Amino acid sequence: MTQVMISPERPTVLDRTVGLVRRHPVVVDAALAALVAAVSLGWATDGHVARVDRAAGVVCAVVFALPVVLRRRYPLPVAIGVAVVAAVVVTLVPGVSATLLLPVLVIGYSAVVYGPRWAGPVAAAVLVLGAVLPFVLRLGAPGVGTAAGVLALVGALFGVIVWLLGALRRAQLRSVAQLRERARLLEEGRRREVRLELLAERSRISREVHDIVGHSLSGIIAQADGGRFAAERDPQKAVEVLAGIADAGRGALGDIRGLLSTLRDSQVDDPDEAAPPTVDDVPALVAQVHAGGLPVTLEVTGTPRPLPTGSGLTVYRVVQEGLTNVVKHAGVATPTRVTLAWGPELEVAVRDDGPRGSRPAATREGYGLVGMRERAALQGGSLDAGPRPDGGFAVRMRLPLPVGTA
Hints:
Layout: H1 13-23, H2 25-44, H3 51-65, H4 75-92, H5 97-114, H6 119-136, H7 145-233, H8 235-264, H9 271-274, H10 282-291, E1 296-301, H11 309-330, E2 336-342, E3 345-352, H12 367-378, E4 382-387, E5 393-400
Helix pairs in contact: 2-3, 2-5, 3-5, 4-5, 4-6, 5-6, 5-7, 6-7, 7-8, 7-11, 7-12, 10-11, 11-12
C-alpha cells in the first residue's frame, strides 16, 4: 500500500510579515513614529506657512511623533498628555495645527484600541478635540471663518470615524484573545484528561500485576516449601507438588502475556490468552489453591447469574487476592472458606480461621487491600476487610447485579 506524505503548508509572505509584526511591536511602533514624523514634516514645510510657523511646525512634528513609540504600553496617559500639550501649542502657535493633526489621531486611535475599557470616551474626546480645536481657534480670523467652521465639522467627523475604527479593532483583538484563551483551556483540559487516563491505566496495570504475580508466587512458594518436606517422605508426592508449581507458573505466564498483549493493543492469536478470568473460573481457582495445600472450601448460595466482564474479573481477583493473603499472613494450613451469595446483589467473602493476631499487617493498607477496594468501587460495589471477633480475617465485597439478570 502506497503511503502519501502530506507536507505542511509553507507560510506565505503575508503570514511571515504578520508574525514578524506581532513578535516585534516596538520596532513596528518606532517605524510608525518615523512615518508620522515624515508626513508631519511634509505638512510643516509645504511653503504655505510663515517662516516662524514653519520652524515651530518642524519642531512639533518631531516632538509629537516620539510618543507614538509608547502608544501600546501607556496608551491612555500618552493620549491625555499629547492632547493637553497639543491644545496649548495650537493656542499659542495656531500655524502648526496641521502638523499636530496626524499624531493626535494616531495616538487617540491607539488609546481606543489598547487602553482600558473605560478609556473609550476619553479617547473620543481627544480625537474630536484634536481634530476640531485647530479650526475652532481660527474662527475669529478674518476671511477664514466659514472655511474654519466647515473644516471643524469635517475634523469632528474624521475623529469620530477614527474612534469607530479603533473600537472595531479593539473588539477584534478581544475576540482573538478570547479564542486563544478558550483554546488554551481546551488544550489544558485535554492534557488533564490524558493525564487522568494514564494514571487510571497505570493503576489498573499495577492491580493486575500485583494480583497475578502475588498470587502465583505465593502459591509457588507455599508448594515449594511443602514439596521440600514431602520429598523426604514421599517422593511421589514431591513430583505432584512440582507439577502443581509448573501449572501455577504456566498460568501466571499466560496471564502476564494476556496483560502485555492488551498493553500493546495488538491482536492475539490465542483467544484463551485474551479472555480475562470471570466468576465462572472461581471454582477452578479454589481447586488450584486447595491442591497447593491450603484447606479451602467454596460455598455458593442462590442462583448464579451472568456478570459483565469487568464485574466477573473483579470477583475473581478479589477471591484470588484474599486467598493469597491467607497463604502469606495466616499460613498454608489455615482453614479458609470462600462464599458466593447470589441475591439482590452478589456478596463475595473470603474468611480464614487463623488465630488472633496472626495478621499483624492487616491494620496497614497494603497494595492488595487498596487494589481490591479500587476494583469494587469501579464496579459500583463496596469492600471491607478486617479481623474477625473470634479470630481469623475476613474480606467481604458487595457487588450490584446488572438490571434484568434476576
